[in-house]
Write a structure and sequence with these properties.
The complex is a heterodimer of chains A (165) and B (486). Chain A has 165 residues and is mostly helical. Chain A is 52% helix and 0% strand. Chain B has 486 residues and is mainly alpha-helical. Classes of the chains: A mainly alpha (165), B mainly alpha (486).
Chain lengths: 165, 486
């Protein structure tokens, strides 16, 4: 004996009412977006995939490590050059990628840039960069920068340099 | 009682509505597929698994998995190996194609269970698909791939089982069900849910798969347990193997051992209960009480409110339906929708039990699918009453608006999955930059396996060259409204 009894009635369904349409209206609107996506995909467009062209320094500021590597490896962009940065991202522009990484406290970006051919400036510019990282309390970045160039440690001079400025 | 859905007979022009429902499902899935394809292959787990199959023979892989501790997943690597060999260097294209096909299959199989036969029935499909793809339990199946998403494989298997059980009895259904169970069970532990689906469906009155086949599957399940717990000694994962959510945060293995090492029963019970609650209410997520924490600390995010409101709304619909059916149930009168409700409850309970060792939202993705199925069927009943009821206009409008709000919350969650996929592409591409040319991962001996070095280079190069969306410029505040993957 079956545990359950079946009750299936296949009567003609009434036409769709306006209330029913209202109930699923948000999802029907969303489906219009789906059609745009699929249609765009078929014709080779890239709907809802807005790729922003960035300078190397902008890629650093926005933590776009993939774009940093693409620009250096594929586009042969110089990681030691100063590149413009949109005003909404950083006040200073143009700026080198390493300076941008220090200014925005992106330790991982400093590592990535040094690995991909970035070279720190020598002398006062190097000291200024290290002091900037000290003021930002980025210990990891400071440690990385201290290992570059002649290896000198300017941290003792940071406070005086800051007050003199 | 008239039903918009789940009537078997196709007559007149009803096949057109069924076809339209399937096309809608496939198109929505392809929309998701577009964002899946936009992301590079995954570095973590994905690369490791590909390197494993590259340097290990097919049979050696399968045999070695029978000796693995904590897990018994021989067909998991077998699937990756077959796809890897078939790809012949076009790894991105093949693994992404598999992922998209699985998503399309999931959508089409889900809609096929609904048995749409009318225009009104078709209107229920958008809600069902939004619940299927928009649920936090499903997100992990599209956001990650290792490089084949095993959890999505199981979701598809469970939906195949659901399609097999609901139909005219046939020998081919029996054979397919048994093979499906073997395949799923040996892919990942959640595959055992195929048996739960078929057995619960048989108990509920579905007769597509025969009693003999269910019995054979039960014997195979017993054999699996004996092999797993006996000679293979696979047992279950230890506390030391995974992080897991508990209370308001995720505990690392050392913390789990410190708290529950002596007696993990309470921890396991917590996992089972919270996984059930997560499917029904989207709170907690992976064992972490995200919404409650936000409420207590005053840091509640719109995304958490939307997630909980939509899941609670869907569960309320199911409860409303169940309560409305109580008089018939007392007289032992059951409809197809009632049977699916029974199967869904069994699936949710069993899926939660299977995930007792640790909580991760994607583990309960099959349960999430059946929650979506029940809620969609209940939504269909509500829509039917909305269309036919001789209620006052105000009452009908209020009901329509309430359902529209529920639809709206699920629409936001569905958009959120697309948003998360775009973000995932950004993260996946950035992950590859951790690898340095000429310096492969420490655990890969490229001197011994030079082809491993070439594979890493190819995948890294492919990932870096793909242009992805930078979240700093596109919808920078989307994270407030769209869920994170737990």
């Amino acid at each position: 004996m079956a545990l359950f009894r079946t009750e299936l009635v296949n009567t003609a369904a009434p036409p769709v009412s306006s209330m029913q349409l209202l109930a699923v209206s948000p999802l029907l609107m969303l489906f219009a977006g789906t059609l745009v996506v699929v249609g765009g995909w078929i014709v080779g467009a890239k709907p809802f995939w807005p790729v922003t062209n960035l300078t190397l320094s902008e890629a650093v500021v926005t933590r776009d490590a993939g774009e940093v590597v693409r620009l250096i490896e594929r586009e042969r962009v110089d990681p030691n050059h100063s590149w413009p940065v949109r005003a909404e991202l950083l006040e200073t522009s143009p700026i080198t990628p390493v300076e941008a990484a220090v200014a925005t406290r992106r330790g991982e970006m400093v590592v990535l840039l040094l690995r991909h051919g970035a070279v720190l400036p020598e002398g006062p510019e190097r000291d200024a960069l290290i002091c900037q990282a000290v003021r930002a309390r980025e210990e990891e970045v400071v440690g990385l920068l201290l290992q570059t160039g002649n290896g000198s440690d300017p941290r003792g001079r940071c406070a005086s340099a800051s007050s003199a400025r | 009682m008239t039903e918009l859905l789940t009537t078997r007979a196709i007559n007149g022009t009803s096949w057109r509505w069924a076809a339209a429902a399937h096309v809608y499902a496939a198109l929505t899935a392809l929309g998701l597929g577009y964002f899946i394809v936009g992301s590079p292959l995954q570095l973590s787990e994905g690369l490791r698994n590909m390197l494993t199959v590259q340097r290990t023979g097919f049979w050696e892989l399968i045999v070695s998995q029978f000796g693995a501790s904590g897990f018994l997943r021989p067909l998991l690597y077998a699937q990756i190996d077959v796809a890897f060999e078939l790809a012949r260097g076009r790894y991105f294209e093949v693994f992404k194609a598999i992922h998209v096909v699985q998503v399309v299959l999931a959508a089409v199989l889900f809609v096929n269970v609904l048995r749409v036969r009318s225009g009104s029935g078709l209107l229920v499909v958008p809600f069902g698909i939004a619940m299927l793809f928009g649920s936090h339990t499903f997100a992990g199946t599209v956001l990650e791939a290792f490089p084949i998403n095993t959890f999505l494989t199981i979701v598809v298997c469970c939906l195949m089982a659901a399609n097999l059980v609901d139909g005219t009895p046939a020998r081919w259904r029996d054979i397919a069900a048994v093979l499906l169970f073997v395949f799923a069970a040996l892919t990942v532990e959640s595959g055992l849910l195929v048996w739960v689906c078929v057995a619960a469906a048989w108990l509920a009155g579905f007769r597509g798969v025969s009693r003999s086949a269910v019995a054979l599957m039960t014997v195979l399940l017993g054999l699996y347990m004996v092999v797993r717990l006996g000679p293979m000694g696979a047992g279950s994962p230890a506390l030391v193997e995974r992080s897991s959510g508990y209370g308001f945060r995720v505990l690392d293995p050392p913390e789990l051992i410190a708290r529950f090492g002596d007696n993990p029963i309470w921890f396991y019970a917590y996992n089972v209960i919270t996984q059930v609650l997560s499917v029904l209410f989207a709170e907690p997520k992976a064992g972490v009480w995200v919404f409650t924490h936000g409420l207590v600390t005053g840091e509640l995010m719109p995304r958490d409110v939307i997630a909980v409101a939509s899941s609670v709304g869907a569960t309320i619909l199911i409860v409303w339906y169940a309560v409305s059916r109580l008089p018939d149930w007392r007289r032992r009168v059951f409809t197809t929708i009632d049977r699916w409700l029974f199967v869904s409850l069994a699936m949710i309970a069993a899926n939660a039990v299977i995930s007792y060792p640790y909580t991760k939202t994607v583990i309960v993705s099959p349960a999430g699918v059946f929650h979506a199925l029940s809620a969609t069927l209940a939504f269909g009943v509500a829509m039917e009453r909305l269309g036919r009821a001789r209620w006052p206009q105000v009452a009908r409008l209020a009901t329509a608006i309430a359902l529209a709000v529920l639809s709206g919350t699920w629409a936001v969650r569905l958009v959120g999955v697309h948003y998360s996929l775009r973000e995932k592409a950004f993260i996946a591409r950035n992950d590859w930059t951790q690898l340095v040319i000429g310096r492969p991962p420490a655990d890969v001996d490229v001197t011994r396996y030079p082809e491993a070095g070439r594979l890493i280079e190819q995948l890294r190069s492919d990932a870096v060259s793909r242009r992805v969306v930078n979240p700093a410029f596109a919808s920078p505040y989307g994270w407030r409204y769209f869920e994170q993957n737990w």
